[in-house]
């Protein structure tokens, strides 16, 4: 229950006469003197007093001492950044560490050998394996995005990068659900909801993978000239790992911060996404064409509106339950549970940078349509995944890491800027890369 900002002043007593001259109490005109009333013994009789219906008075309002000011936009954004920064930094560090073992463990093998990126295009089997790999990675959306940047662009000539379709299937699955969120879902909603969420996340991941191009000109050109552009030695060395950290930090931090700012602004300035009481007709049993179209449009609007927002796979359980409580159907809540954390604005910006805006729109459309279909299937099967909902806590990183990741992020960004400036200055002075020995040679 919301705590009001102002309450009635308990010390403000009503006056006997209001501002219009109306008395607060008047005689009851229906009251009559009892037959046994003796004025000599009982005194002069008078009708009982009752409240005057014409009396108008409003008690003075005072500020509620229990009221807490809602956080401002800047405060909300600061909280979101502090929560996301450790996971983004962890993802960047993991990207560099994975690059250090490319001679023994290529990034292709990270997706398992069955992905076989040398074949023409990508099939459903490959996308399924990418989705399974995404479900097994214990990273939230902020941590998975830097890793996907490394998977897409590659880190050396031996690891030229994976197709965009496979990377997006991996990213969608890792953000929509995972091993850690499966455990939380099992504890909150039971085994049926856990299995439904994992299977639904896999279907969403495959659909997104099919919707986006398997490769792009931007990816191929960047992969082909990765060593020539960055002029860094083999990533199996310490300096190579640091170089990958710097490059990934400059690419990922601005994308994530932009997405957090826009999604926080949407949640702060727009009406609450959980206020869906007007959608209660979604559960009607009519089968008319108008009702079906209304249902599909309603579900599509609700699910599409949450796609750009930065909602983690853990807290989306609470929002999905609130959506159902406000009048949405169980299937709509299930579709929201799958699609809300699957893709967000940083992920969409990642796609637009790696491929095109058209590919980004294709992914949004496919994700929305697939989520609507899954929500309708859940309702048709009378599955209520939100039954027995409770509130769970999101997985957290160690305090020593979370407390110092801000300084580490600043070091990575500053190092990346210095490295970029140094590379630009070297190119202007006529230096070139000697890729045969991994060192810079001046002409």
Topology diagram in text:
Blueprint: E1 6-8, E2 25-27, H1 39-42, E3 49-51, E4 61-63, H2 73-99, H3 107-110, H4 124-136, H5 141-153, H6 164-176, H7 179-189, H8 191-211, H9 217-224, H10 226-230, H11 238-269, H12 289-306, H13 316-325, H14 330-342, H15 345-354, H16 357-380, H17 399-428, E5 431-434, E6 439-442
Antiparallel strand pairs: 1-4, 2-3, 5-6
Membrane topology: Multi-pass membrane protein
Protein name: Permease
Keywords: Cell membrane, Chaperone, Endoplasmic reticulum, Membrane, Transmembrane, Transmembrane helix
Defining key terms:
443 residues; mainly alpha; two-stranded antiparallel sheet; 17 helices; elongated
Could you please describe the fold and organization of this structure?
The longest helix has 32 residues. The protein has one domain. Helix 6 packs across helix 14. The strands form three sheets. Strands 1-4 form a two-stranded antiparallel sheet. Strands 2-3 form a two-stranded antiparallel sheet. 39% of the residues are buried. It is mainly alpha-helical. Helices cover 58% and strands 5% of the residues. Its main location: membrane. GO terms for molecular function: calcium ion binding; unfolded protein binding. This is Permease.
Number of helices: 17
What is the approximate shape?
elongated
| Low-pLDDT sequence parts | 102-109, 111-121, 216-235, 272-286, 390-394, 432-443
Cα-based radius of gyration, to the nearest Å:
31 Å
Distance between the termini: 72 Å
Structural class: mainly alpha
Number of strands: 6
Strand arrangement across the biggest beta sheet: 1-4
The helix/strand series, from N terminus to C terminus, equals EEHEEHHHHHHHHHHHHHHHHEE
